[in-house]
Structures are given as structure tokens and as C-alpha cells.
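Deviations from the work plan: none for this task. Representative record:
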Amino acid sequence: MTGIEILPVTGLPEVQPGDMIADLIAERVSLRRGDVVVVTQKIVSKAEGRLVPLSPDDPAARLELIEAESRRVLRRRGDLVISETPHGFVCANAGVDVSNVEPGWAALLPVDPDRSARRIRDGLQARTGTTVGVIVSDTFGRPWRIGLTDVAVGCAGVAAVVDLRGTPDAAGRPLEVTEVAVADALAGAADLVMGKAAGVPVAVVRGVPEAWLRESSVRDEVVRPHAEDLFR
Amino acid sequence: MTGIEILPVTGLPEVQPGDMIADLIAERVSLRRGDVVVVTQKIVSKAEGRLVPLSPDDPAARLELIEAESRRVLRRRGDLVISETPHGFVCANAGVDVSNVEPGWAALLPVDPDRSARRIRDGLQARTGTTVGVIVSDTFGRPWRIGLTDVAVGCAGVAAVVDLRGTPDAAGRPLEVTEVAVADALAGAADLVMGKAAGVPVAVVRGVPEAWLRESSVRDEVVRPHAEDLFR
């Protein structure tokens, strides 16, 4: 097996509502068949106009907005709300985010991040004639462990989860583990070249196994159904 | 910023108790200054002799072993136990694992995975004269999301967490987010070239930012103190 490369896509302009992200990417990077393009949620939300006015001096309005973006609140502590979004994601503040957004505004999660990923993938395909995967990523905390990691909130043309159940281990016995969260690992890997403050909202992961390149959906494959969830 | 490469280290023999992992790696890959070497917990546990007999037909013995390796059980469902290990990790079955282990045996987590990482790092440095970082990784599930990802259970010479609090965002305003779980992202990225069944237990991540290369500890920096944890 050969290696994997993670390449930052630099020089993107500040994204505005209505911008075609696929065009902005295709103008700046030469894509190859099977590349996975990871796009941070923030610029997807901006391009899709998922921005709402929010005064930095109005914590009550912020809380109201977070609750409007939540299906259910799991925990609260001080300013922090851990809630479940309409997509089924459990994250801080329902994804309402004011960093890297114009002062006085907040960015919301895309309405359907899988659809956002498909739209970018289709645009890249139309523009370049190249079949690629696309992941829309966001930065989430985790219980029990300090620190944030990037995970996939939407995907197209690349597996969200690869099921290795039944695959023999190196000694030929069936593996106990099982379903690998490939899209989340790709999103986290892409973040290694992005840097939160570096203004690099897109990266290309090159060298992904062919078998991972298929139609998929974060919502269908990653969001754990309530009945199976021990922590919801 | 340039890209990052993830390279599998192939051709490692089946690791036995007493093996020097640093030697096995140094013989097979030409390391460069600043490389981060990610080693899966399984071979570290084998080298350290963290193996115990466990009949595959004795679920009661398995449960007893899991409880002995747990500080506290958080959830149970059927065969699955989610518990907190003496290290403070919350994971399935206290890390007791029979895949990729000789039949009739189970592998336990290293007693002190940060120390395991330091030992491998020191061995690589002594053997190659090259300063590298080392991460010991394991495969954990997460609440709320289907699929497993690799995370760091120990590290040496590379930051577990990089604190971006106070760093300005691309527009010059202070970032809300904050602490990035760099070692976990590196562990997850390394898993992209390992594959659970592929028998590749080591990968090299090349091109990591210089600022991340420092002394660190997963136990000290990643394990979230109980008082700060909303889900423990």
C-alpha cells in the first residue's frame, strides 16, 4: 500500500453568499481521479447564505438562536450548550459559530450537509471532468477527551463508514472491530494542514483506497440511531 | 504551508514479548527529523507482554477481565461494556482485545502508554540519531456517531493538544475554538494507511508543523478531569 498525501488549497478568497465553492476550488488546484476534497463547514454555510445577525453583546439572543437550531438540549454549563441538531449531530452550541464570520453575524450549519457535499462534488466533476469525493467537515468536541477534532458532517462520493466486519484479521480470524469512520478520519487528517487560524478552509486528500470511493451519506451512515445509543 | 504525507511501514514481523519496537521500525524506514511515528497499541502491548490467557468460549472470564481492567463501568449492553480504564480513558471493554492476538489470549492496554511512547521515541533517537515524535494509538468508538476512529493513548515528542485560544482567526478576531486534539488527529490520519486487516501496525506522518513537536502526555493533556466532564 502506498502513502496518502494531504495538500492544503491556498489562496481562496473570502467566501460570500451565492459563491460556487466548486469553482473556487477548481480554479486553484489540479484534482486527480479519486482525490477527496475536504471543505470546512464555515465556507459552505457562507456560500449557502446560512448567516444570521447576532450581536456579540447579546447572550440571550445567542442562546435563543442555539435553542432554535437544536432538537434537544443534552447538557448545559455556563455559556456552553451541548445539544442535538436537526441533523442528529450532538455538538456544542448546535453548530452556531461566530469565529471566522463578520462581526455581528453567526454562521449556522448547512441545512443538509450531505446535499452540500453532493453539490460541490457535482460542480467539481462538471468543471474538471474528474471523479472526486467531497467531505464537508466541522470541528466538534468529544466527551471524556480534551480537545477538538474535525469530523464529517456531510459527504459525497466517499464512504462515511467502511464496514470491516467479517474481514479476517492479519492472522485470518474474523475481526471484532468493525466499522471504521473513514470520513471522520479524512476530515481530521485534512485539518492537520488547515489550522484553525490559517485561513485554509479546503484540503485535498490524495491516495485514498479505491474501495472507499462510493456513494454515501453522513446522516444515514454515521448518525447513531437513538435506540442504539448508550449516551443520548 | 506545505502538505503532509502519511506513509505505511510495511514488513514488520509478528511482534513478540520483549521485542524492541524501535529497532523493528528503524530497520524498515528512513526517518527524518520531525516525523511522527504512529504505533498501534496492539504491538506495543505484545512487546511489553501485556497478554493474558483468555478462552474464546468463556464469556464470564472475559467479563471478569474487563472489570479488572476498569476503574468504573459507565454502560453495559449485552456483551458490550463501556468503562473507564485506570488511565482515565473511556472505551469499550476496557481495551481488552482478542483480534490480531493469538487464539486463547487477549491483549490489554499498556500500563502507561505515554511511557511506552517515550521508550519507543528514545529508542528511535538512539538508533537513528533523529528527533521524532511517537504516538501510541488505539481504536475507540464514540457516543452519538457510528464507526470507530483511532486516537492517541500515549505520546512523546509531539503535542497531544495544541492550544489556539487567543490566536486570532483569519479576520484578526480571537478564535472561540481553541484546543485542537492534534495527537488524536495524527492517530486517525495514520489509520488511513494501516487498515484494520492489513497488518500494518506502524505509519509515519511527515510534514507536521514544527510548533507541534514538544514534550507532551496524553494522560496529562487529553484525559478530561471528572469535574470538567459533562458526560462522565
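Chain A has six helices and twelve strands.
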